[in-house]
Structures are given as C-alpha cells and as structure tokens.
C-alpha cells in the first residue's frame, strides 16, 4: 500500500521508490510508488500531474485501494525523482480552500454542506437547509469571504489517530478532508461567487478563483 505523503506535507519534489510499472491498454503505464507526493483524483479534487524523472505523470487515481500513477512511458524500478506540477497544484489547492471557505461562510447562514466539486471552471458546493436557514445571495457570500481572505486566516491540518484528517481555517470548525490546501486564506487571491440557486430544496453555490 502506497504511503500517502501528500497528506502530511506540502512537498512538491521528493526522492521516491518505484515498485511496479506495467503497460495499460490505452498506451499509458500503471506505475506504483512506495510513497507518493502526488494527490490522486478524489474528494472533489482533480489529481496532481507532474514527472517521475523525465517521464510525464498524466493522471493519478485510486484503484483497488492503492494509488496508481499513469505515466506516458515506462519508469524503471528503483529510485526516482518525483516532481509535482507546481502551477496545477497551486490552482487545485486554491480551489479546494475556496470551497472550504464558502462552506464555512454559508454554514453561518444555517445551511449545511453535503457535497462539493473543486474543479477548474466547475467549482460548486451543495448545501441542505438547516432549521433556520437564511436567505443567501452571491454578493453577501462574496463580501464575507473577502473579509476572511483579508484576515489571512491560517490553515490548520490535524491527522487523527483513526486515520482521518481534519482541515480548518482560523476559528472555523474543521472539515474531514484529504485534499490539498493553501497555508493561509491570503493565498486565495481573488475568488468569485458566480451563482447561487435553489434546486430540489438544496442550495448550490457556484464559484471560481481568478
């Protein structure tokens, strides 16, 4: 089972050990590492991409409980140098953290997040109403989010003894999360709350980052 080093540190490069590599029907190769800094697709977040030595990693996913790196060419077994695409990781981290921030802000209005999608151009959070759910508008969410971004609340990550990980910003209640995040909200830059709508009783907030 691959050690998930991306959960405990933000490293974008690492010396890793390749323990398996076999061809796939689509022309790529399934490559396994003893430990990885690549975040696989999941939890509403796209996978990291990057390189193992000079071989491109085009996708990372979880198959049969283990992490598989899809590479464009075979990678020799043994030691390799892993590099995560920095720009892609930063974008995904900003999108995921922006989704958490919106989740926290709308929870203050008595809506409870139940589902999230943190993909570029597709960001959205789905909420179910609480007992005293308030009226919500794009402008209201945007204003409150911008205030917390100016405060630059720090990200707090806690790895629990049961294997789950909690992520929070400042004083907000932690969410269970295995994704990547900015170290503080000031790194989000500009976020845009694009649309707020009600569908089948649930509130859907669409958003993006500049």
Automatic annotation (TrEMBL):
MF term (GO), any: ATP binding
Keywords: Aminoacyl-tRNA synthetase, Ligase, Metal-binding, Zinc
Keyword field contains Endoplasmic reticulum: no
GO biological process terms held by the UniProt record: tRNA aminoacylation
Domain of life: Bacteria
Annotated InterPro entries: Alanyl-tRNA_Editing_Enzymes, Thr/Ala-tRNA-synth_IIc_edit, Transl_B-barrel_sf, tRNA_SAD
Gene3D superfamilies recorded: 2.40.30.130, Threonyl-trna Synthetase, Chain A, domain 2 (3.30.980.10)
Every Threonyl/alanyl tRNA synthetase SAD domain range: 167-200
Record keyword Metal-binding present: yes
Cofactor(s) needed by this chain: Zn(2+)
Cross-referenced Pfam families: tRNA_SAD
Protein name: Alanyl-tRNA synthetase
């Amino acid at each position: 089972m691959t050690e998930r080093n991306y959960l405990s540190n933000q490293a974008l490069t690492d010396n890793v050990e390749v323990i398996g590599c076999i061809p796939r029907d689509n022309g790529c190769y399934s490559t396994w590492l003893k430990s990885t800094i690549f975040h696989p697709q999941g939890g509403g977040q796209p996978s990291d991409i990057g390189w193992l030595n000079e071989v491109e990693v085009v996708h990372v996913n979880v198959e049969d409980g283990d992490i598989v790196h899809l590479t464009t060419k075979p990678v020799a077994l043994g030691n390799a140098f892993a590099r995560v695409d920095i720009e892609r990781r930063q974008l995904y981290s900003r999108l995921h953290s922006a989704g958490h921030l919106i989740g926290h802000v709308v929870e203050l209005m008595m809506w409870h997040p139940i589902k999230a999608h943190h993909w570029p151009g597709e960001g959205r959070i789905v909420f179910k109403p609480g007992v005293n759910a308030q009226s919500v508008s794009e402008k209201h969410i945007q204003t409150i989010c911008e205030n917390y971004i100016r405060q630059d609340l720090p990200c707090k990550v806690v790895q629990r003894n049961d294997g789950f990980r909690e992520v929070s910003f400042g004083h907000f209640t932690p969410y269970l999360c295995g994704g990547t995040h900015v170290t503080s909200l000031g790194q989000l830059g500009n976020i845009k709350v694009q649309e707020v709508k009600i569908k089948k009783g649930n509130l859907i907030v669409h958003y993006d980052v500049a």
